[in-house]
Structures are given as structure tokens and as C-alpha cells.
Amino acid sequence: MRRMFGTDPANGDYTSIISDRHYARLEALAADAVAKGAKVIRAAKPEDPAWKRLRKFPPTIVVGATADMTIMQEEIFGPLLPVMGYHDAKEPVAYINKHDRPLALYWFGKDDAAREEVLSRTVSGGVTVNDCLFHFTQINQPMGGVGASGTGAYHGEWSFRELSKLKPVFYRSPLNRLADLYPPYGSKIARLQKMLRFMS
Description:
This protein has helices at 2-5, 20-35, 49-53, 90-98, 112-121, 156-162, 187-199; strands at residues 39-41, 60-63, 80-83, 104-107, 126-129. By secondary structure, the chain is of the alpha/beta class. The strands form two sheets. Strands 1-2-3 form a three-stranded mixed β-sheet, covered by helices on one side. It has a two-stranded parallel sheet with strand order 4-5. The longest helix has 16 residues, at 20-35.
């Protein structure tokens, strides 16, 4: 953060939080995480008057996030990144599968087998490999969630299908032989049953 954007909140590359109320909510999420044992890493303090006056919330990494922290229970909508550690590659897969389906999944690494393991054993909305958000910009792929993260898909053809209501209409052919199976059941059905018994 310091290297790319510096620590001056007047830098236009830092966007403002929508309201004072939401700014306070982000501060509370970070404070709750710290109170429950997480470590916060940031290059500036959100309570700094210069940042707060502009409602610029400095990008913040929350290391050691746990399930009991509010930041792990709500959608964040701000520059807070909770980080959970793991010892075995199966742990993050089990964590994902134990919770509501995520709207997006981002996988980072160079191990193709490890990547395929995660992709084949989890269910999510879109996926971007070795980056964030870019699956959303692909107009030739559907964008959407699954389960609690939403239903349906958008972009191009998928948007048209999602936002349209098809009206299926079936016209029965006058040559429809299924009419022979309609009641009342009489000699025709008896002959058909006899023929089917003979064939079996």
C-alpha cells in the first residue's frame, strides 16, 4: 500500500466509504477482530482525522481471523481482508464446503493439481485464477451466484435468458397415437397388454 499509493488520504486512488455510518461499521469490524485475537496490518489508521474526514478507510489486513469474529459473519463491503491460516490443503476446501456458497472464488498458485482439487471439490459463483474479480468482466462467460450468494446468471445471452420469461406452448399433433392410451380402457388396451406380455 505504501509503495503503490502512499499514505496520503487525498490520493484519488483511495476511494471514499459511502457514509459515516458505514465507516464506523468497518472500524467496528476491525476492532471486534482485534478484541478476539486477530492482528491488524495497515499503513495508516482509520481513526486518523485526515483519513476519517475524507471517509477514506486504509486497506487493512486482518491476520488470524476466526469464525467467531463479526468480519467472518457479514459481508464486508470495504477494504478489509480477513486472512485465515491452514496447515493442510484440505482445510480451506472443508471450510468453504461447510459454509454458504461463495459468490466468487479466487485461487492463487502455480500447482495445477492443487488448483484442480479446489475447483473440483467446491461450489461457488465465478472463479478467477491468480487474480481477483476478472471473471466478472468476461462477457462470454455467465456471472452469477449459487445458493445464498444468489441465483441465476448475467452477461450477454445469459442476461437475456435470466431476465426473460419464456412461454412454452405445446400443440398436439392430430396424428397423436397416445390418444389410444386415454380412458376409457377397453379392448384396445387389452390387446396392447397382451402384445407387450408376448414381447417380454
